[in-house]
Specification:
CATH topology of the largest domain: Nucleotidyltransferase, domain 5
Largest sheet: 5 strands, mixed
Distance between the termini: 44 Å
CATH superfamily of the largest domain: eRF1 domain 2
CATH architecture of the largest domain: 2-Layer Sandwich
Oligomer: single chain
Strand order of the largest sheet: 1-4-3-2-5
Helix content: 25-40%
Structural class: alpha+beta
Radius of gyration: 25 Å
Number of helices: 10
Order of helices and strands: EEHHHEEEHEEEHEEHEHEHEHEEEHEE
Number of strands: 18
Length: 381
Amino acid sequence: MYEIVKDFPNEFIFEEGYPCISIYQNTHRRSPENIEDGTAFKNSLFKIEDNLKKRFEQKEIDALMKPLYYLLNDRSFWNKTLDGLAVLANKDKCMVYVLPHEVDTITQIGDSFAIKPLIRVFQSAGNYHLLGLNKDSFSLYNANRYSIEEVERNPDIFKSIKDVLGDQHTEAFLNFGSYGGNSGGVAFHGQGGRSEEGQKDLEKYFRYVDKAVFDNFSNKDKLPVILFGLAHNSGEFNKISTNPYLMKDGVAGSWEKMDLNRLKEEAWKVMLPIYEAKTQALLDEFDLARANSLGSSDLEEVAQAAVEKRIKTLLVEADVEFPGHLDLSNGTIKYERDDNVSYNDLIETIVKLVLKSQGTVVVLPKEKMPTESGLAAIYRF
């Protein structure tokens, strides 16, 4: 009746034709806070249904709303939510994003879906990989300013040193101890060769981790990698790593003992200067493009360029919207608004056109925008 998805952009977000239903709301991870999440969703459904009655017969409304009410009554779903929820539905499909950060509340029906909040979650400007590492195992996370999620393990990639080394695992390594009890740091017991053998084991393992991360993730995603681990382990790993995306600065600590929100917060302290530098580079690029007539902040000019597939990068203010319709045959705009539930946002239409033409969309807070209009476009030509 509904599908939980993780990829973005998913082809479904480009679906058009009234009614496209978009519902965003905050949720809670635990009881008793999550008890009211279903009630908030039910209230959104009532608003949607009341609006649909203006244009559809009850039989059609029942068919459209059936997956949404099924979701509402699926207690197993509401017991496993995170911090935010996005539900997109039309007559053919109901698609759900379970989000690890809060979102603005949206209840909307239109000719297309509202997707700006999703772009803010998934946009590349703040994305990075977090590599949690100790002497025994590692984990990799996809993360940004708002969310963090452990990468699903490929069964062909070993995570523990015992699995990696197999029969080559020397006896000396089994005598590894740790600094301060269970802190996860590495100490070598014994003398001479035994210590050296243990060091070689650790080096072999770290080389394996470095290659696995680069071959399977960094080489494809080209995202910064932030190392999270105790100082000794991180120092040894940095010595042998050949991954050009590994950040010089990492986070010191026992990553496996922290919850995901704390991991995200600590890693973002390292990532923030990189994110700000990337954002500033985009702002500088826009200023240069506009000076050379290759950029604009005028809504009608940007809309025309989007229809013509000429936008390379689009910067959008997080909370700006312009209700109306864009004629895709000639790029002209008709400004209008039906009511507070049923309308179309011109910015959303432009955003989707840019994504469809393989352009980049970055959502920024108002104070970071280089223009007062709420959008800034850099053209391809």
